[in-house]
Amino acid sequence: KVTVFSGMQPTSAALHLGNYLGAMDNWLKIQDLIAKHNEVSPGHKLIFSIVDLHSLTATKTLSPKELHSNTLSVAINYLASGIDPQKVILFNQSMVAAHSELTWIFNCIASFSKLSTMVQFKEKSKSNSQSISNGLLSYPVLMAADILLYRATHVPVGDDQTQHIEFTREIVNSFHHTYKKKYFPLPTIISSETSKRIMSLQDGRVKMSKSDPSDLSRISLTDTDEMIQMKIKKSKTDSIIGISYDIQNRPDISNLLSIASVTSGVSIADLEKEFKDKQNSHFKDFVSQSIISKVKPIREKINYYQANEKIVRDILLEGSDKANQIAINNLKQIKDIIGLYH
Ligand code: ATP
Ligand code: MG
């Protein structure tokens, strides 16, 4: 049976287009697929989490109020995007204590030198070289615990998480080797071909991120139509005439082409043909309209859930009950394998 696990950090109140096109879009496709499979042969599981413990590693510490409200907002972003609590277990990470317990166990088999060479660690510690926390170093260990606690087989994430999934597979191997017992599956990454890495609107060489200090760098799912138009208008381009896809030499235009292609359903080749001799401003109008067609319906649903917060709190409570049932049972089995008295 298939078990799918994934999550996003509540490092900001809204998800952005990179989160949506790089990960959420696949979550929704898998949700439909698994629901169909479950009708014929039940037992496949889908587990999506708001990973609040991960967000404690953020460079800029969130205030208690922010963290609390961001967590609820990210849950709202999931629901508004189409995540259906009837089909998936949707919960907040810190409400399932076993994530932290399994992280400690994995910390004791994870390689310190490997962790210190991980790309995300190196990038995120650059911006805060004064005080790098142990938590930031240990981020991939917590992620391995998230995935393996449910013995997940598939993990739909963006391209920036590929190295962490490989790390998770190494944890599986070293656990089996250390304790001489096979227990975990080797999880596989699921990533989208066309949008596994959406880039910043201000710099086509770095990925779009919640934690980028510039709001102009990203389109958030809560942005109004006017904000989307303004951000695309101000997005970086180059001085080469016409529109063409060339990641090496034209990263900014290429990023806009990718975004326009996945949001409109028109292939990059067809967009190139159509806008080849047109001005940037014509192309940018098309890009904004095509983003708006995706974001507007989600934004409207976000507004609905924000006005009906109680529904969301109840969904998270129910989700954490279901997640805890699986997690507590699996953690017991893991403790038995290790010899931890319980
Ligand atoms: P932060 O800057 O706080 O790390 P983030 O924008 O990177 O935030 P995460 O919560 O770390 O978002 O990641 C959530 C999911 O979104 C992950 O599956 C990640 O791979 C994916 N993702 C994040 N940014 C992008 C992007 N620019 N393109 C495609 N996928 C992305
Ligand atoms: Mg991230």
UniProtKB/TrEMBL annotation:
Alphabetized InterPro entries for the sequence: aa-tRNA-synth_I_CS, aa-tRNA-synth_Ic, Rossmann-like_a/b/a_fold, Trp-tRNA-ligase, Trp-tRNA-ligase_bac-type, Trp-tRNA_synthetase
Keyword Transferase found: no
Domain of life: Eukaryota
Cellular component GO terms, alphabetical: mitochondrion
Keywords linked to the UniProt accession: Aminoacyl-tRNA synthetase, ATP-binding, Ligase, Nucleotide-binding, Protein biosynthesis
GO molecular function per UniProt: ATP binding; tryptophan-tRNA ligase activity
The reaction(s) this protein catalyses: tRNA(Trp) + L-tryptophan + ATP = L-tryptophyl-tRNA(Trp) + AMP + diphosphate + H(+)
Listed EC numbers: 6.1.1.2
A Gene Ontology biological process term: tryptophanyl-tRNA aminoacylation
Subcellular location: Mitochondrion
Keyword Protein biosynthesis: yes
Family the UniProt entry places it in: Belongs to the class-I aminoacyl-tRNA synthetase family.
HAMAP family found in the cross-reference section: Trp_tRNA_synth_B (MF_00140_B)
PANTHER family listed in its UniProt record: TRYPTOPHAN--TRNA LIGASE, MITOCHONDRIAL
Protein name, as recorded: tryptophan--tRNA ligase
Organism (species): Dictyostelium purpureum
Taxonomic lineage: Eukaryota, Amoebozoa, Evosea, Eumycetozoa, Dictyostelia
